């Protein structure tokens, strides 16, 4: 196969797949870093988490922008920037565009933590999981490789562990909140 006519499409596929893998690694690492059961070694991984997040955003940008050169899809700027207006699988592509914007905004709020406050930032940052899940939906619904065994194996190796960590986090929070009438966290009484 002569790759030259398909260079932009191949680039977009590769960047999209890389973005999903990087985002999954970043989500998994973020969940491990914020776990109550974390070890001292995990706390020191903030720079890796940040690098994974920023590289994810770069891959998301490359994923969309490279399609501007694709003569087959020919989405135009509106097709890659405005959700649900493109001709190619508009629902799933729109979900992907929203996921990309959400990941970008929430990822970049890290640099505004001092302005918005650490507690507010943490609450906002929890929404990252929602946009990551939307990106997975986009991949399954719009990805041209999403039914390929090789793609499912590689993606599953990264997505499944991160999804399990997320499920454990959500189940743990639900279990902790279930014991109070209004879902508040219960602080243990100090001994003494």
Helix content: 55-70%
Radius of gyration: 19 Å
Mean pLDDT: 89
The helix/strand series, from N terminus to C terminus, equals HHHHHHHHH
Strand percentage, roughly? under 5%
Count of extended strands = 0
Characterize the main sheet: none
Number of helices: 9
Describe what this molecule looks like in 3D.
The chain is mainly α and 192 residues long. It has one domain (4-166). The protein contains 9 helices and no strands. It has helices at 7-33, 40-43, 46-65, 76-81, 90-108, 113-116, 118-125, 128-142, 149-177. Helix 1 runs parallel beside helix 9 and helix 3 (46-65) packs antiparallel against helix 5.
What is the gist of this entry?
This protein has 192 residues and is mostly helical.
């Amino acid at each position: 196969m002569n790759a030259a006519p398909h260079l932009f499409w191949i680039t977009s596929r590769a960047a999209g797949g890389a973005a999903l893998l990087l985002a999954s690694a970043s989500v998994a690492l973020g969940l491990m870093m914020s776990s109550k059961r974390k070890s001292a070694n995990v706390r020191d991984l903030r720079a890796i988490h940040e690098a994974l997040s920023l590289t994810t955003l770069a891959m998301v940008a490359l994923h969309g922008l490279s399609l501007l050169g694709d003569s087959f899809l020919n989405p135009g700027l509106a097709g890659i920037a405005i959700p649900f207006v493109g001709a190619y699988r508009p629902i799933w592509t729109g979900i992907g565009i929203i996921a990309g914007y959400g990941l970008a905004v929430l990822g970049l709020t890290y640099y505004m933590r001092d302005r918005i406050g650490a507690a507010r930032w943490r609450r906002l940052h929890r929404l990252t999981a929602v946009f990551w899940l939307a990106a997975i939906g986009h991949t399954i619904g719009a990805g041209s490789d999403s039914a390929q065994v090789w793609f499912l194996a590689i993606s599953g190796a990264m997505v499944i562990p991160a999804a399990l960590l997320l499920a454990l986090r959500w189940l743990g929070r639900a279990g902790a909140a279930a014991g109070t009438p209004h879902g508040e966290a219960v602080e243990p009484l100090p001994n003494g």
